[in-house]
């Protein structure tokens, strides 16, 4: 019993996980692909731009113009002594047809010499690729050794990506397992941003080249890369979120990644989007979907079906397991044939047909709109005490009530109507049903909401006595408009139903309505600067300064009376130095007050103080000796 | 009552002039000077107001600090207290006094504004 419950729980959680699986938020739309192609088609001036442009365009599946011209350009720019130059030339010549790069023994030797543990990873990659593209022989096992040795010394992201790309050019018999494991290690080094993006901190180019390299190597050895589906989608989001690229190298990396993700043996992310707004109505009954890969190329073998569709409001299921039909590259479903009521529907769409598809369960919100009609519009004036019978007038849309209705403080004005769906006759409750009364003389508007009762019959009652504050007690003729609107309505209604004459008691003189004066210049603020504090008159300050100095006089007199003298002053150097130093410190204090800042003062104090301290120490020691001798 | 206060004061003064050494009297005169200076500063503040409050504070703190340091010096050089200050010679006390005064003056000058 417990086992089956656990299993059931496991299935439910799996289903939930599947339902909440990530779908791509970014991809290359057709205009993005065109922009990328444009960037890659710019005139190139040197060999590496030629490489990025030509190979990039080839990866996007675009045609490279003027193969002859490109070939001649490559041959003229080629420097047969440089590994980089050979790499760019060789790869570019492979991408265009009928272009041969002349190869000499020296070229081969230079390239083979670059394949060692002491060259940088970039050099190894370029040398191996050039050798491979030029059809020169190379020993795969040696390359693997060089790569493994190099990975230990250079383990940044770009280096390992180059190692992966290099390994993809080697023979399948070579021991590529160690290098294959690097894919998993690099995947662990990706930064997860908010669960939506997965990228290297080195940036877009590194992430895109990693994706290219990982799939290139995985396809080569025919082993699925250890990347979870969610991680693949997060990588898609990171790589294709940037829509304008700073450099050719960046554009090239994005193009390579797009090609790798649309055409590898293991993971092909699916992009499902509605062609136009996801809305159906009676005039447009089919829901059209575009199902493409990340480069907006339609998927060759795909079956699209609606797993379930339920109404958001009522949660009732409308469709289950309904297939889409492929019509001229677009998948269509006639949703109106299921006769859905107007509103929003949540579709769960599954794309099948290829085991490589990733993110092939998509949630889509579809709106069904309709047209509304107002029926049974009845206007009446009801007496409050119900003594006189009501007089009900029916008005048909879009005409206006012929006579105007009068209501004074003893009467209520009442209105009732129904809103029905034109196509199905079902009663509707749109979001906006307002009754607007506008004073024809002053332009004042008062808006009320009409509420439906339990049977979806809309009622509006105006009690003139109760509502007179909204109207500012202004009697007169008011034109009555009915406003009906909703997101799912294709024909919002603004209907002048009738004119109503309202009579209020305690009428004030009609005042023209002042629009709120929000946007006129406001009165200027005079800034009050801080008043300087009141200072005492100079006489007082001077008096007190003199007063403060008087105790000093007293001190000198007292000392004189006591017989304090400097007769013991010995003119030894340390004494003189000490007194000079001490006077200098006091002088420094004064200078500090007037000119210096704390740092300068501390600097000077350190110097003078040091000298004074040493001299003073000496002097006091001498005094101590003298004192002890006297004893 | 006032009689006894006057007699106490006169007795105290007599004892003071006879028993205290000259050295201590010199320091006491200095203490009196500092006290008067501080009191006059405070009087000014009471009468005229605290306008440059930082200046008043620094001046007053300078007086208070100097008074305290001088009292410390007096305690340490008083030969009657020798038992409490076996490791501190009068010269050492004076050196401490000077050093502490340097620091005090640095702070006061910083604050005087």
UniProtKB/TrEMBL annotation, chain B:
Compartments (UniProt record): Endoplasmic reticulum membrane
Membrane topology type: Multi-pass membrane protein
Swiss-Prot/TrEMBL GO biological process terms: protein N-linked glycosylation
Keywords of the record: Endoplasmic reticulum, Membrane, Transferase, Transmembrane, Transmembrane helix
Subcellular location, principal: endoplasmic reticulum
A GO term for molecular function: transferase activity
GO cellular component: oligosaccharyltransferase complex
Membrane-traversing stretches: 30-49, 55-73, 93-112
Highest taxon of the lineage: Eukaryota
Protein's pathway: Protein modification; protein glycosylation
Keyword Membrane attached: yes
InterPro entries, alphabetized: DAD/Ost2
Entry similarity comment: Belongs to the DAD/OST2 family.
Complex and partners: Component of the oligosaccharyltransferase (OST) complex.
Function of the molecule: Subunit of the oligosaccharyl transferase (OST) complex that catalyzes the initial transfer of a defined glycan (Glc(3)Man(9)GlcNAc(2) in eukaryotes) from the lipid carrier dolichol-pyrophosphate to an asparagine residue within an Asn-X-Ser/Thr consensus motif in nascent polypeptide chains, the first step in protein N-glycosylation. N-glycosylation occurs cotranslationally and the complex associates with the Sec61 complex at the channel-forming translocon complex that mediates protein translocation across the endoplasmic reticulum (ER). All subunits are required for a maximal enzyme activity.
Protein's UniProt name: Dolichyl-diphosphooligosaccharide--protein glycosyltransferase subunit DAD1
Species annotation: Anoplopoma fimbria (Sablefish)
